[in-house]
Amino acid sequence: MAVSDRELEERIRALLDARADSASICPSDVARAVAPDDWRPLMEPVREAARRLADAGEVEVTRKGAVVDPRSARGPIRIRWARTD
Asked: Cβ neighbours of residue 8 under 8 Å, at least 6 residues apart?
């Protein structure tokens, strides 16, 4: 299944829009929304999409509640809207 980078970025935005401003999502939420029956291969592409959005200042990538560098983060991460406070 070919999924475009843009589609993954849009799905991240859509899932975040559907939640409270302070909420975060897991990359697997995005992968499952795009391909419910074969989501695992999309995990790294979703993380890459989150990195691009973080680079653009749209989102933040967190681990255990703290903002982390999306390029070096290992293990479970979360994605949330970038905070200005």
From this structure: 30, 34, 42, 45, 46, 48, 49
